[in-house]
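Much of the work behind modern protein science is quiet bookkeeping, done one molecule at a time. The fold becomes a row of whole numbers, each drawn from a learned catalogue of backbone shapes. The protein below has been through that process, and both of its lines are reproduced in full.
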Amino acid sequence: MIHRDTIQLTAIAAAALLLTACATTGTTGSSSPSGAPTAQAAPAPANAASAAPGQPGASSPMTAPRPAADPSAPKPFAEVSRDAKRDDGLFPILRKEEKVWLEIPRAMLNKPFLFTINISSSIGERGFYASQMGPEIMAEWRRIGNTIQLVALNTEFRAEGGGKRAGEEAFSPSLLAAGPVASADHPERKAFLVDAGMLLSDIPGMSTRLEMAYRLPYNVDRGNSYFELTRADEKLTTLNAKVHYFTPRIPAPPLVAPPVPVPTPPQATPDPRSMFMGFVYNFRALPEEKMSPRRADGRLGHFTETFTDLSDDLKANPRVHYINRWRLEKKDPAAALSEPVEPITYWMDKNIPPKYRPAVEAGILEWNKAFEKIGFKNAVVAKQQPDDADWDNMDASHASIRWFVGSDVGFAIGPSHVDPRTGEILDADIGMSDVFARGGRAFISEDAPRGLAGAPVSTLAEEAQALAALNHGWREGRNATYCTYAHDAAAEMDFALDVLEARGDIAPDSPEADAFIQARIKDVIMHEVGHTLGLKHNFKASTQVTQAQLKDKAWTDANGLSASVMDYNAYNIPLQGEAPTTYNNTTLGAYDYWAIEYAYKQVPKEQEEAELKRIASQNTQPGHAYADDTDAGGFGPFDGMDPTINRFDLGDDPMAYFRKRLKLTQELWARVQNRAPEATDDPLRQRRQLANGFSQLARASDLVGKYVGGMYTHRDVPGASVPAMRPVDPAKQREALRFLAQGIFSADSFRFKPEFLTSITTDYVEFNRAGFVNIPAAVARVQLGSLDRLMQAQTAIRLMELPAYVPVSQRKGLISIGEVYGTLQSSIWSELKTGGDIDPLRRNLQREYLRRIQANLTKSGAASGQFADAYAVLRLHAVQLQSDLRAAQGKGSLETRAHLAESLDFLSTVLKATMVRT
């Protein structure tokens, strides 16, 4: 028996001999690829393998040296996680003080999940707002040696069979974040830790968007970024990060104004060099069982998950479009009416003011009417987030209605996140700004009236640019939609309240006025919930209601003002002396029921294709007309050629609606001018009422112009009985031209009493809210919308193509481009025939006309291509105008004579330039 002390002494002696050997022979070192030295064990004696035990050179099991530990190897799991608090879930979270780790099971490597980013807090201006859904992507963890990668998978191009490998080789994934593995594997769970700090970087690409908005280079400050909250469950792991962005310095403003205006630095932060943004990172498990996808049909409007299928080359168009929809299944498939296995639940944000919660809830639950029609009871559920809740409804497991504020914000947005494999909606967070909570009126008074001072009307275009990039995620064409309905609906509400208050039909701050606001909130929530159910805008729905039905209160109370809440629906304001009717849209329309049926009707798999075709073929039924944002135009190359597809009109005759709005605006302005201001009034009251009228006319001006050279369109399958497009009737086109000439282009439409104009005040406490009124700038905004449309190339090309769309026997009486240009020119320059003085407002309009003549005649390529004939006709009219200007020289007041001389000189220069160039 050997005593324990003897063994210890033997081991000590062996260690001493080993140290002596090391000192004698030395150690060698080598360099890793990065240049860092790596330790190597000392070489053993050459005869070590053959020496007998106990002889020199022999190795004893008690004394054999252990290989030196690799310093680059991860530390043991237990050592790294000691004293850390653990939260189990899809990817368990471990926290110790400020350190946060994610536990990655090896079984989850290379297994796809949905990675999403939401914006919980922001800076409150220029498109950067809280409560916004951000990008989504299907991602996976990849381990390369001791490096962990978060990789975004490329789902834009897919293939099965032989084409799968070729597709994977052709189209690269993207790296979102990477970092070193933080621990060795857990011995039982076969999982390792990674530092979650790799997420505290600019994964959302916010620095680029900040540079777009402010033209300043902002970077992430990793040292001052941190995780606020974390939570995990079986299907979801969520980390709330607060990321600090900074720029070292704000450059001094230029001494001379640059040719292109430079945006100001951030105005809503205490120090424009520094800002925090809150991101909610969600790792969500994809459903183990894929939902059965449903193909889109162009006769209805649903958001889609779109990809290119490269499985074979037999299809002319390899693009595939799956509609976005929630997974909704009956508990009892055989029952005519059944509750769903899992309802679509919306959590109402605790920030929603209590007095508006009933209206928000009503807007959510209104959709149950459509689901009940296809056999679902209580398919949509509304729940209120408790005021003391410590969980964030921006995580990926709570669809929500979020209430947010900003310094220049007035919109709502209805995005959602989907399973890219099938189009299944997994999460949705509606963002609703407080534009209504502030009565709408305050916001509009600070925003829209800037047009009266000649400044930009609003920042909505900038918001659209920033939020479009944000919500489209890393792929173009995602299912988010930028929706200005809340802002525009608030403007509509203000106009309606102004008219009714001026008449004495409703009192400011009365229960009736509050009911107006509540009804509009319900309407906007219905609209945005519709987006999160998968429905796109429908800007043709309003034309499915007749003018007579709009005047029938019993009919509008029961059926609403439009065939869809997905339209931008205007207020139904009666003319003076007409009977009151339903003012606001309050219920779903026929189109909404139809679109929900196509997306959610439960049908046996073997019958689905036939049943969906049957449902979609109902597109010619009353109330089922559909057209989306592209059809309405107003952005990019889409100018909107169908005058029945508009944002904010009412009834089957948009022209009649626009005429009515002109009369209502003139009534409002007359009443405002006859009302003596009171000392207790908001300083901007009169200014706001002026602006609300100008906003109505600006919209009407542009939309009326769509009739000229317009085409009625109809969505259907090839070979349908209804033509896909047909020209607008010539009589309707001429009616539009007369409306513009006699109403919009007439200075008499914008006459105001001097006593009224001199009484308009500004806010002397907050002078920067609004300067003094600039009527010419506001009038120009109204007139130039239609002028631009009438003189644009697309309108000219369609006018020249009209005869090709009409049988020869019916071409008599068609409107021509020569008639349009001639009518426009004679209307704008009518004073040249009468010899009278030219009003300042008219002089402004005439100058703008000449500028457009210049642009069309001198731009490169104008005299060739499709525009060549239009160029020739326009130039012919310009030559005639030159002759008329010569004949009118020396007539009228000094200002008129100066204007005519300057106009002649300008036009002659333009014509000479084009002649030389040609």
Remarks:
- The mean pLDDT is 86.
- Residues 344-791 form one domain.
- The chain has 26 helices and 26 strands.
- The two ends are 116 Å apart (CA to CA).
